[in-house]
Amino acid sequence: MISLIFNQIFKLSATTSIINSHIQEMEKLVSSWCKNKPLPESYIFPPETRPGNLVVPTCNSIPVIDLSKAEGQNRTHTVQQILKAGQEYGFFQVVNHGVPESLMNESMDVFKEFFEMPWEDKAMLYSEDPKNSCRLSTSSVNYAREKIHHWRDNLRHPCHPLQSCIKHWPQKPTRYREVVATYTIEAKKLGLRILELVSEGLGLESRYFGDKLSESEILSINHYPPCPDPSLTLGVAKHCDPNLLTLLHQGDVGGLQVFNNGEWIGVEPLHDAFVVNIGNQLQIISNNKLKSVEHRVVTNSRVARTSAGLFIGPSEDSIIEPEKSLVDDSPFYRAFEFKDFLLHYFANLEDNEVVMGRFKLQA
Ligand code: OGA
Ligand code: NI
């Protein structure tokens, strides 16, 4: 009996000390300290990379593609629109895409609710170890090592295979698992549909990307609290996505900017659209026929912004190389294992030239 009580006390105090250490670490979350505080020095980007007061056109130049047209006579036209957008911008938005608007809204509500919960409900998920399979963190991948912090909190977890992943997902809000499981299944289906259209456009068989190349699915939810000085900092610094294809639900608040023709352009928030962008692997496999393009996130001083990206990518042991039928003269990249790409990517975040340079073949 005594040992039982002792065990209980011991267990309790171990849990308490885990929670205590989490509380200390969690104080780094932007949302936990930012209210009514000026922007700390550690969040100020150097003049070359800070957004400044530049008014960026939220122009209509990122193409908006109506996917309902892909099922009828206009399929070829839709395929061409996707390919052209992928070549010119690396980005496009899709509407009438088949993911119910109610599901998109409900997911966005759950994501927002998650970040609004009191810290006790989130403490167990906070982790500074990038290997953790579901983790709440802040800033970029490595808070301790980075020179400048980013104005965002982030929750990310894998979604496939669902059965083994879901038990690591947040238990609160209570409907999180149910809603997000349905959401990720539907969004993945949409991703595969877009990849089929891409394959058709490239002249590949329609299931080309359907297996190992799109096996991994990571959901990354960003929360950007209102920021005291958006001209000096960034929510996410410029980067390309390392995966195959990203589907982003950006809700109603803008902030995403894409680098195009030497300038930053804003991606207009369209309520029920997905923003789609080409990842590094799709650029490599297509031998530069599609481009993964640098993008960043600026903050705003009025409202919090929540966005959710579904990163569809290869399994880590996939061998990636330019598809032979897409090589006109010579391939631009050598073959490599995807896990090597990821290692190199995370060591050189923010420098896409360096990341891609390692896998390039000399011309
Ligand atoms: C990302 C990203 C964009 C956004 O997480 O890779 O580019 O609008 N996010 O949050
Ligand atoms: Ni990105």
UniProtKB/TrEMBL annotation:
Entry superkingdom: Eukaryota
UniProt catalytic activity: salicylate + NADH + O2 + H(+) = 2,3-dihydroxybenzoate + NAD(+) + H2O
The Fe2OG dioxygenase domain, residue ranges: 215-314
Keyword entries, A-Z: Dioxygenase, Iron, Metal-binding, Oxidoreductase
Classification via Gene3D superfamilies: B-lactam Antibiotic, Isopenicillin N Synthase, Chain
GO biological process: defense response to oomycetes
GO molecular-function terms, A-Z: dioxygenase activity; metal ion binding
Keyword presence, Coiled coil: no
Stretches assigned to coiled coil: none
Keyword check for Transcription: no
InterPro entries: DIOX_N, IPNS-like_FE2OG_OXY, IPNS-like_sf, Oxoglu/Fe-dep_dioxygenase_dom, Plant_2OG-oxidoreductases
Co-factor(s): L-ascorbate
Family per similarity comment: Belongs to the iron/ascorbate-dependent oxidoreductase family.
PANTHER family for this protein: OXOGLUTARATE/IRON-DEPENDENT DIOXYGENASE
Protein name according to UniProt: Fe2OG dioxygenase domain-containing protein
Organism: Gossypium tomentosum
